[in-house]
Design brief:
Elements lengths: L1 E4 L3 H8 L9 H24 L8 H13 L3 E6 L3 E7 L2 E11 L18 E4 L2 E4 L6 H16 L6 E9 L12 H7 L2 H5 L3 E4 L10 E4 L2 E4 L1 E10 L3 E2 L9 H17 L10 E9 L5 E2 L2 E10 L2 H21 L3 E7 L5 E3 L4
Parallel strand pairs: 4-7, 4-8
Antiparallel strand pairs: 1-9, 2-3, 3-7, 5-6, 10-17, 11-15, 11-16, 12-14, 13-15
Helix pairs in contact: 1-2, 1-4, 2-4, 7-8
Length: about 350
């Protein structure tokens, strides 16, 4: 990725969102960026300490809405359950630019040792889990509030309008629920505000502080989640020949799925990832169960690559299960498409 060295990350992020930014007092933007940094850090740490899972971001949404109202923005809440948007009308004619951040956390137990460490827990898939901002959404939300305050301070010279979108459920709505960007659009967000362009951003631990990284073409992969249901025949663990062991079949399926990327995908064109992240089967040490469930994620960079890999996965899953006398079914929950950047010189 291309790296650009900047002196004030917030100032550069603010400057990137407007094609007519020359009309804004850059010195004032830099001044506001420097002054707001401690507040952005405090916001981020507060949100990090109080994470919330997808479609449950009530405290975070309340914090965002209160801050945007103090800045004098037009604020709308309750979009896609817990989403928040702030609308800033500039003092000069121009386009409407949207900037988006996500707010939800993950079912991960935090094991760091910092004063703002998360101690939150929640119920996820029927189990009590720790909750943590392990993907940077706390930073994204705080950064976008900071950008909103910067531009609120120069609104009179602002050419056009800015729509600040705080999206819930980026990690995916809970089973049986709708959520995220798709639901925000379904509820008419863009029909109301008509943005000409939308900008997003993502923190990245591997890059140096103060750098912005970008590349032409796909940047963030398409995300699909999948489940695999392997069905066998239950028997006592002392008599495995009476069973069709779905655990053994599942182990072979997991191993065989690794060949989809390592042997069947041209990674010189684009990378891809097939990951099984959860597996559950059985309840007792000496009983072979009749069923195993696996959950995973597929990451691809083109629609053609996605279609090919899903076909390869289906073939491997069904045939490996059949070789063990079991049956298996692949179910895919389509996610977002790849995020791509076009650079014009």
């Amino acid at each position: 990725m291309k790296l650009i060295r900047v002196t004030a990350a917030l100032g550069v992020l603010s400057s990137c969102v407007l094609p007519a930014v020359a009309a804004v007092d850059r010195a004032r933007v830099d001044e506001l960026s420097a002054s707001i940094e401690p507040k952005v850090i405090a916001w981020r740490r507060d949100i990090h300490e109080h994470p919330e899972l997808s479609n449950r971001e009530t405290r975070t949404a309340k914090l965002v809405a209160e801050q945007l109202k103090r800045m004098g923005l037009e604020v709308q809440t309750g979009i896609a359950h817990t989403g928040v948007v702030g609308f800033l009308k500039g003092g000069r004619p121009g386009p409407t630019v949207a900037i988006r951040a996500d707010m939800d956390a993950l079912p991960v137990t935090e094991k760091t040792d910092v004063p703002f460490k998360s101690h939150a827990t929640a119920t996820y898939r029927g189990e009590t889990v720790g909750v943590m901002h392990a993907c940077g959404h706390d930073s994204h939300t705080a950064m976008l509030m900071g950008i909103a305050q910067i531009f609120a301070g120069v609104r009179e010279s602002l050419p056009g309008n800015i729509l600040f979108i705080f999206q819930p459920a980026e990690e995916g709505a809970p089973a049986g629920e709708e959520g995220g960007a798709e639901l925000m659009l379904k509820e008419g967000l863009f029909d109301k505000y008509h943005p000409d362009v939308v900008f997003g951003m993502h923190v990245w631990a591997g890059d140096r502080v103060g750098d912005i990284a970008y590349r032409a073409g796909p940047v963030m992969a398409a995300v699909d989640s999948f489940s695999i249901q392997v069905k066998g025949r239950q028997a006592h663990g002392s008599a495995p020949w009476r069973s069709v062991d779905p655990i053994v079949a599942s182990a072979q399926i997991i191993s065989a799925l690794q060949t989809v990327v390592s042997r069947d995908t041209d990674i010189t064109e684009n990378p891809a990832v097939v990951t099984v992240g959860a597996i559950k089967g059985g309840i007792r040490y000496n009983i072979i169960p009749d069923h195993v469930e696996m959950l995973g994620t597929l990451r691809t960079f083109t629609p053609e690559q996605r279609t090919a890999i899903l076909g390869q996965m289906k073939r491997i899953i069904e045939h490996t299960a059949a070789a063990n006398g079991a049956t298996a079914e692949l179910t895919v929950d389509p996610g977002s498409d790849p995020c791509c950047i076009t650079i014009r010189r």
